[in-house]
Amino acid sequence: MNIEDIKKLREQTGAGIADCKEALSLSKGDTEKAKEWLKKIGFERGASQAEREVKAGLIDVYSHGGKVGVIVELLCETDFVGRTEDFKNLAHEISLQIASMNPFSIDELLKQEYIRDNSQTVDQLIMSVSSKLGENIQVGRFERVALGE
Known about the structure:
This protein is an alpha+beta fold. The chain has helices at about 5-15, 15-25, 30-50, 80, 85-100, 105-110, 120-135, and strands spanning about 55-65, 70-75, 115, 115-120, 140-145.
């Protein structure tokens, strides 16, 4: 394990330097095992954040070819996180998910396979970003409108 391995793992996962170093140490330098460990602890940390109050965030608006429109309220704890590119990208990905998969409720949305990576659910996607940013992130509400429906 060297600095370059830690830096590469950090770039691939978005995890902190100390976490990457620990993951590589525990996995004896196996990058794939280190990624799995980071994913696991990320979800555990994200779960502990789930109790914290969300009072900031943003609204994402998406139109798919003028035929389907989606508006999503994505909430976080602070304005600072609400302005980050990671948070904005997550809001947009959730809008794309809703436009594509037409969930009826937030619970159904969270249980769906993520359209860009069916190895994880939308809830797992949110938890991974929540872990990376260190804040509780929740879908507040959403609306999907399709032409002619």
